[in-house]
Specification:
Zincin-like; elongated; alpha+beta
Amino acid sequence: MDFFRAQDQARRNTLWLVLLFLLAVAGIIVAIYLVVALMAGQPGMHDGTAGAVRLHWEPELFATVALGTLVLIFGGSLYKVLQLARGGGAAVAESLGGRAVSRGTGDLVERRLLNVVDEMAIASGVTVPQVYVLDDEPGINAFAAGTEPNEAVVAVTRGCLEQLSRDELQGVVAHEFSHILNGDMRLNLRLMGILHGILLIALLGRIMLRASSSRRSSRS
């Protein structure tokens, strides 16, 4: 396996992921504009044919919808990014159900994990990160989180500890250290923030639909 070729491919995939996020935001703006235009009953929307609707392009309405949507998405994203950044990688790990592994643990597989993390820290020349375990996750997975290398954490699932050999676990941990060294954690943090902003739009839409249904029920 060509490591540098794989690294370049991973960076290209990241660019595609960012592009998909931007396209998702654009799609949300267009969808909200269409819904607002229909609900607002713009003049000339109905062309006289039963059940037919003809939409007129309203630049001012679109600009208002786009601005409002972007404010909500990026406002929610900024809030989430600041919230996660304030707590560092530990806040991310704990929000996902992670448990910090004590240096005095008597669990043999956890001791092995700590030893592997120490080895990787020495080999890469970075500060030894705090180690977390996701006890309720039987699958094999791991992640690194944090905004700076000196406040990063490495988290692995219980499945990693119980199903992988030491060499395999070392490979997984080494992969997470590459994220720390390449600064991938900051990008992941921003993507998590954008996703939170998009989910905020979905939450507000659900609340508005419920409120609209309640008003219709009360009128009838």
